[in-house]
Amino acid sequence: MFFRNILDMFSDDLAIDLGTANTLVYVKGRGIICDEPSVVVLRRDNKKPIAVGIEAKEMLGKTPANIITVRPMKDGVIADFDATEEMLKYFIKKAHNKRSFVSPCIVIGVPSAITQVEQRAVKDAAHASGAREVYLIEEPMAAAIGVGLPVHEPFGNMIVDIGGGTTDVAVISLNGIVYSKAVKVGGDKMDEAIIAYIKRKYNLMIGERTAEQIKMELGSAHPTNSIGPMEVKGRDLISGIPKAIDVTEEEIREALQESVSIILDTVKVTLENTPPELAADIVDRGIVLAGGGALLHGLDILIREHIGVPVVVPEEPLTAVVRGCGMMLDKLETLRKIALSNN
Q1: Amino acid 115: pLDDT
Q2: Which domains does the chain have, with CATH numbers?
Q3: Which of these, 38, 57, 303, 325, lies nearest to 167 by C-alpha position?
Q4: pTM of the prediction?
């Protein structure tokens, strides 16, 4: 125990939100130092990495035949182990930068529905990337801690964490998740829905980056009447030549309707399965949104209208998970209690 405490004193410990869309890294004592896309560009022949993060995302859809672009995370868990390991090595090296002679202890946020096999894959990838100890925290718990909810108290706290690959809805009390439900709907599914809608309505093929830009600018769950039309460029599927069209907020809201409905239904199911005393607390305290999906225009209004409970969007919902994981680096005894499994 003494040796472990000495190691804790001399290492630059890290917290990582290993997301489907973006990976965020928090360094103990320094805060969030890295927020980059979860994308890796590899050579096709020897699988050697060419670019990771922001640089790799710039290459999405633009690579020649001998280079492949990989999104190593799918639905919040590892889809490509080797690419994830390369990505983790890049982010850990960027954050740690050999400032300390002791390998870091790393806390990683993972979806609440993660399986034992998937847990082991995340841990193995982190160990292979140079971690001394690896702790996994369920993302709803980390997000709740990150936005300042009193998770240690005997009150019901409800968090809706909408990430790139999954939406995690959880009710938390006394440092534990009382009930949670996760669905594989998030920012990526919304992007796919926009691509499919524009293809179906306008016979226009657009790429992932364009769809994401449309979602960020025009995406809404409730009418706002404040966003003008947006010019979208792509390839005409009939003539095969480039073409530009204008799309409106109303059209994109229609494209996102199915994804938003699934999130809303998941919130309802979670509330239906919440013990009455905790449900009463949620009526008073409200529902907190976290993750990139929390930034979807009007989502808080839609949930409030359908559920009849106050909905709060914190100041920085995108960084809630990594901040929560980072706060646990200063509370290692608590961390060891709430982590999914010890090393």
Answers
A1: 86
A2: 2-142+320-338 (3.30.420.40), 155-185+260-317 (3.30.420.40), 187-255 (3.90.640.10)
A3: 303
A4: 0.87
